Amino acid sequence: MKLARTGTPLLLGATLALSACTLGPDFHKPASSAPAAWPALQEKAAPSQPQSTPLEARWWETFHDAQLTALIQRAVERNLDLQIATSRLLQSRALRMSIASEQYPSVDLDAGYSRARNSAEGLADPSGKNGKSAFNLWQGDFVAAWELDLWGRVRREVEAADASVEVAENDRQGVLLSLLAETASTYIQLRSVQSTLGVVRENLDVSRHSLRLSQMRLSDGVATNLDVAQAAAQVAAVEARLPTLEERQAQLINALSLLLAEPPRSLQQELLTPGELPRTAQRFAMGLPSELAERRPDIRQAEARLHAATASIGVAKANFYPSIRLSGSAGFQSMQLSDFGNWDARRFAIGPQLNLPIFEGGRLKGVLELREAQQQEAALQYQQTVLRAWHEVDDVLRQYNASQLRRDLLEEAVRQSRVALDNAKRQYVEGAVDFLNVLTVQSALLANQEQWVESSAATSLSMVGLYKSLGGGWQSFAPVLQAKVERD
User: Fold this and answer.
1) Which domains does the chain have, with CATH numbers?
2) Phi, psi for 24 (deg, rounded to 5)
3) What is the pTM (predicted TM-score) of this model?
4) Cα gap 399→469, rounded to integer Å
5) Please, what are the averages of pLDDT over each run of 10 residues along the chain (488 residues)?
6) Using an 8 Å Cβ cutoff, are 340 and 332 in contact?
7) CA-to-CA distance for 257 and 274, rounded, in angstroms?
8) Which of 31, 100, 117, 160 is deepest in the core (most CB within 10 A)?
């Protein structure tokens, strides 16, 4: 008896020690390869340059456009893609809950009634009637089972499930980041088209004025029918640009409606009135390079995928070892309902179940090699994601710098074209030049004005792309979205 009492604590201690064993490699956060500072531009620097100050969380507010801010708020509240991503996150959390349940014992209640008759020629009839008549059977049991997680298989499965939840969370953050950028970009494009429409209509008024001037000069015998025809052609050519621009305006308004989960044309009354084209600030913050991996959802998602793949190796290794499952049941069984629950009707069963893989035909080895290869792939994908992020930031920085330089040069071109048009019109009235010179200069002005609007929009779009590449903005709505997930 003394040996038995001494051996019991030793056995329990050995079981607990084995339960603390976890096979497979432990996950370690990949080392950061971020440079100490953002790469400097080698070419001519534009007026607006980045600063290494903390990134502006609500970057869309730097455009100082209240309507843009309101549209973004509504998009976050209503967008269907974001709601779908939230649903995927809820599914991932539910799956994690299901997997984690294996860490705890399961307890079930089994109860039933049957009317049966056994064969007189078969095995012994438990009713004692030798199969000559039917009998009733009442039974009810509490059944409990628990697998001893000796090698950490369940713990690794829960670890992989936790990482999968992180994948889903960062997927939703990535959808939110794209939604912010797409809403801002679509709005900027809309204002750009509306600005271009304003330019074309302004030039249309100028062309009509030139046509009236030519007709008056023809009446006075100073101009020719050629001048009038050229002026009329110019009016038609400028006016022909309006339908395409108006169609593009309607498409962009519908695109914003879709982002806000609204039916087509629902935002026309709100957005048809032209507004100022959002302009960028003179200085903007980019944060520190070392913060990029913490902000960009795709990098965080790739890291979580690597974590899940690493934990899955432990699951595959644990399958090579024996598993022990403790199970037991206790309840009552009787042939008469009146006897059900009596002490003599009690029954119980308890005992461990051992499963030891002996020959699997290479299945377990193949699964392990698969998990190791998947972990290697996840590690390479993480490296590729980080590298792609740095390329995106560098490319957008250059694009933003170049678009500013182009915008400023085109602004000067517009100013000079206006001067040239005023001079050409005055010289035409004085008879110093023919009307073709006026048309040429006016066409140049229209082209420069349209390119200036386009370059101004490109500068603002580059700023949006830069904030997206930096992974900024989704953090502002994270608490609200988290509360929504917990509420659902």
Assistant:
1) 16-108+148-321+363-487 (1.20.1600.10)
2) 90, 165
3) 0.85
4) 13
5) 43 49 89 73 68 82 93 95 94 93 90 83 72 83 90 93 95 95 96 94 88 86 86 91 95 96 93 90 78 90 96 93 90 84 85 87 92 95 93 90 90 91 84 80 88 93 92 83 69
6) yes
7) 17
8) 160
